[in-house]
Amino acid sequence: MRDEKDWAAKAALADAKGNTALMVAARKGEAAKVAKLLPWSKPDEINVDGQTALMLACKKGRAECAKLLAPASDVNRLDILGDTALIWALRAGSDACARTLLDDPRTNVSQQGSHRHSALIEAIRAAGKDGDQALVREIFLRGDASALMARGSKSTALMCAAYEGSLECVALMASACDPKTTDIGGASAIDLAARCGHWECVDFLAHRSDPERVEKYFKQGGSAKMPLWASRHAREEARQIWAGLDLAEGDNKGNEGGADSRSTRDAPRRI
Fold this sequence. Notes:
Structural class: mainly alpha
Helix content: 40-55%
């Protein structure tokens, strides 16, 4: 009985920023303390940043704590930035925390977070070029159309995948996103892949978005070893061949100079 009173008293404590004993234990990864404090705490209580104990556990990649907290918490609660526990888990690169949340049927994978990025876009960024794409595939299949767009920058999940350079992820996102869509800066997924030197992604997207133009490029002398969207240091003749193509007897020039001219901008930017 005395022990229970002690834990109840500890659960009632909070620091100046509103962090309760449960939040501190979750952030530090002290699973045994979390288990003791949980019956005497309010799991959805928030600190000054609007974050719950579950969010703090996911933010730090504390998988055991997240597993204890998730069933008792509102998994879709938003902090002051608009982020969910799932978004924090993906941003932290914690597959284990993300898996705990994805196994919960209550989790809304399409919720937009800070910078108006969805969990899908955060998963793509976390996986990068060579990482495991399993979480990306699952979130993609479970999400709705809103998960495909980062509303603030008008970037799509395909653009993010192209920037990161995973051909597997690009192929998956291309099944739902238009490769010709441009972001707020006028760049398409092909432009972003080219700026980062992901030429396999460039070739895949070019063939998917404009196969007739690609075929004509090679017929008129374009090198099969030359990226379709050349960087400023690449061979000038390849760019000239691509930009000079005239499809449909001159009435399909809408793409001339578009992606090519954008590809000469300076450094790539994070989307």
